[in-house]
Amino acid sequence: MEYVAVLLPSLVVGLLFWFAMKAVFNADKSERQAEARAQAEADAQAGFSDRPDTGRK
Question: Which parts pass through the membrane (predicted)?
Fold first, then answer.
């Protein structure tokens, strides 16, 4: 039982860090997708429908 008491705080902090980093990366991914949609919409309105792919996703 003493091993659990020693390891539990580290595991909890590790899990909290993992969830926080997952949220940050998901927010960044969503922001990049929204930016790409907005750029594509702006290009379509400006008449640049065949814009070359930059390779970013």
Answer: 6-25
